[in-house]
Amino acid sequence: MSDEGKMEQEKADGVRRRCRTVGFALQAEMNHFHRRREVNFREMMQAYLRQQITFYQHVGQQLERYPLLPVHYPLIPTQCTLPPNSFTMHTTL
Fold this sequence. Notes:
Layout: H1 9-65
């Protein structure tokens, strides 16, 4: 602007200095924001993973305490142990 004669050189230099100062302050704020975001994200992920570990440990304890299938019931019966004629109806006349 001083080249065009619209502003004195001294005032133009002052404007440039203030613009640089504002630019540096803005850059510092952005750097600080990004560092805090990284720290916050890391802390959030650590807390999330700790809660996941606790949850699945609790699930494991519940499964140990209350199994889905009792031990005395086999998954596939190997042999039928019903006595012969156990379902026959007896009638007396």
